[in-house]
Specification:
- With 405 residues, the protein is of the alpha/beta class.
- 39% of the residues lie in helices and 17% in strands.
- Helix 1 packs across helix 17.
- The chain is globular, with a radius of gyration of 20 Å.
- The N and C termini lie far apart (46 Å).
- The N terminus and C terminus are likely disordered.
Length: 405
């Protein structure tokens, strides 16, 4: 039995944490003054094939080589995640820190995605259950903020876009880790049960998904309420639920899909960028059995996709496997994987990227736009078509040369 054991699973160094947090702050800071990059792919008509592209058959024949229509859809859902970052108030000195900078009606337009064909219908919030000492009440907001804006729900409303997609689409988009308490939840990686029959997930992610604040519903309650409302409004139409997120947002997206398929029985697809592991093998089986599909976009050089816990490869049975499972540290990879690599990028600045840049959402979109197949990783036109995706990334690299205090 071969074990894939990651020594960095349970402890993230302060240096790495700072770099990753800084990456998100800088990308957002640039985004607020420059329009986010726009995909260069022309939107391709999906029509009656929409269930295939939502993963009904686990994207068989669409990933290697990467189907152009699927590429276009992945990049499009990446834009919803970019909007979640752009709309977030990163300024710890601001009285509106950790909230959305924009109302539902203006969020997409003010976050670089005015032509999405979707309308935001609800803001979403995540709350940490980490117990804080009494003195934290006197601490700065950036240290003690327990609830924060994590993303939004949107629904397709443009008739041309609905016709192109072949159905009405509900999107749930999540940003990645920002606040101090979110970082603390990230390192709570012991598995906890979420249902009967031993489906188990990382306790920190589950906490952020299910914890209520004094005057605020949990993220799970907000999602359920809004999805239930939208399914009722559009009950006579073909409809899909697509959850997309980056990093922590990708993990929350998988939990959301698990919850939605069990609560509503509707085809729910996750488009995950740079997501960590979320749960055990039983959790993954229950998710797929209920109608959930997960497409994990992974950068080989991104350490976040290799944590937490470890994976027992080969699916072997035995007392060792049983004992390890009982420790609460045996995870499983959920869904299908689209594996990319910074080392295959046509750009030297991407190939030379550090831990933070390999995890950057802009780099992920650049790699998706570049990828052709495992035998021929880079498309001939990749160098030209990737310029838009890397405008933010290039400015970020330039600014991070200055040390941060």
């Amino acid at each position: 039995m071969r074990l894939a054991i990651n020594l960095s699973n349970h402890v993230m160094t302060t240096t790495t944490t700072t770099r990753l947090a800084r990456s998100h702050r800088l990308v957002t800071a640039v985004s607020t003054t420059h329009a986010p990059p726009k995909p260069t792919q022309r939107a391709i008509r999906i029509g009656k094939q929409w269930r295939e592209y939502q993963g009904l058959h686990n994207w068989e024949g669409l990933l290697d080589p990467l189907d152009d229509a699927l590429r276009s859809e992945i990049l499009r859902y990446g834009k919803f995640v970019e909007a979640a970052y752009t709309a977030f108030d990163f300024d710890p000195a601001s009285p509106t820190y950790a909230t959305s900078l924009h109302s539902k009606h203006s969020l997409l337009a003010n976050s670089g995605f005015p032509d999405s064909g979707y309308r935001v219908t609800r803001h979403l919030h995540a709350t940490s259950s980490v117990d804080l000492p009494a003195w934290v009440d006197r601490a700065p907001t950036w240290l003690s903020k327990q609830s924060s804006w994590i993303g939004y729900v949107a629904v397709s409303t443009d008739e041309t876009e609905i016709a192109r997609l072949g159905r009405r689409d509900i999107v749930i988009a999540y940003r990645g880790t920002v606040t101090c308490l979110e970082w603390l939840e990230n390192v709570r990686t012991g598995l906890t049960c979420v249902d009967h029959g031993w489906p188990m997930v990382a306790s920190g992610f589950w906490s952020l998904y299910t914890t209520r604040a004094r005057e605020m519903a949990s993220l799970r309650e907000e999602v359920r309420e809004e999805v239930r409302r939208l399914l009722s409004v559009y009950k006579d139409e073909p409809i899909s639920v697509t959850v997309t997120g980056h990093s922590l947002g990708a993990a929350l997206g998988v939990l959301t899909a698990y919850d939605v398929v069990r609560e509503f029985g509707v085809l729910t697809t996750v488009v995950s960028f740079g997501g960590p592991r979320v749960g055990n093998e039983r959790f993954g089986r229950e998710l797929e059995r209920g109608g959930g599909r997960v497409l994990r976009i992974v950068n080989t050089q991104d350490v976040i996709t290799k944590v937490p816990g470890f994976v027992i490869e080969g699916g072997r049975e035995g007392w060792v496997t049983k004992w390890l499972s009982e420790t609460g540290w045996v995870y499983a990879e959920v869904g299908r994987e689209l594996r990319l690599s910074s080392s295959d990028s046509p750009r030297e600045d991407v190939r030379a990227g550090n831990v933070a840049t390999c995890h950057d959402l802009g780099v992920y979109l650049h790699l998706v736009n570049s990828f052709m197949s495992s035998r021929c990783p880079i498309r001939a036109t990749a160098e030209q078509t990737n310029l838009d995706f890397l405008n933010l990334f290039a400015r970020y690299r330039q600014r991070t040369r200055t040390p941060v205090a």
